[in-house]
């Protein structure tokens, strides 16, 4: 599946906007895990398509730099999501990745004890 740069960009913005709604949904209904799982799968799919687009020969110059920046930001959002909410898929809890490395449950606990990552990045929560 191929995606245009414009489509990738619009989907990127949509995923960041939806983060707040997913957090509110989970806060209002703690049993509503399906929305969180669906959102996590959408982020993973976006990352897959963005990495494919980055590797394609059709992307050059500023678009390539823009995609690299979007991928870094989406990885941050993915880490925040997995830090704040347990993401369950296929019957098990998914470990989250930070720069391509799987983080153990001990490291996850340490990360949860640190300052709120979302606040660090965006200055609000």
User: How far apart are the first and last residues' alpha carbons, in Å?
Assistant: 35 Å
Largest sheet: 2 strands, antiparallel
Counted up, domains total 1
Topology pattern, helix = H, strand = E: HHHEEEEHH
Number of strands: 4
Per DSSP, the total helix count is 5
Please give the order of strands in the largest beta sheet: 1-2
Structural class: mainly alpha
Strand content: 5-15%
Anisotropy-based shape: elongated
- Whole-number mean pLDDT: 74
- Round the Cα radius of gyration to an integer and report it: 15 Å
Helix content: 55-70%
- Low-pLDDT stretches: 89-107, 113-119
Write the layout of secondary structure elements.
Elements: H1 5-28, H2 33-55, H3 61-84, E1 88-89, E2 92-93, E3 97-98, E4 101-102, H4 105-113, H5 117-122
Model description:
This protein has one domain. The chain is 69% helix and 6% strand. The strands form 2 sheets. A two-stranded antiparallel sheet has the order 1-2. A two-stranded antiparallel sheet has the order 3-4. The chain is elongated and about 45 Å long.
Condensed summary:
The protein is mostly helical and 125 residues long. Helices cover 69% and strands 6% of the residues.
């Amino acid at each position: 599946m191929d995606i245009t740069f414009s489509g990738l960009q619009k989907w990127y913005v949509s995923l960041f906007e939806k983060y707040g709604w997913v957090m509110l949904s989970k806060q209002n209904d703690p049993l509503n895990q399906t929305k969180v799982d669906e959102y996590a799968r959408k982020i993973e799919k976006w990352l897959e398509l963005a990495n494919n687009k980055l590797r394609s020969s059709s992307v050059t110059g500023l678009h390539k730099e823009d995609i690299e920046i979007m991928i870094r930001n989406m990885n941050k959002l993915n880490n925040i999501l997995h830090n704040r909410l347990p993401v369950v898929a296929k019957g098990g809890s998914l470990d989250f990745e930070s720069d391509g490395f799987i983080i153990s449950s001990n490291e996850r606990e340490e990360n949860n004890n640190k300052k709120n990552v979302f606040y660090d990045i965006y200055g609000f929560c």
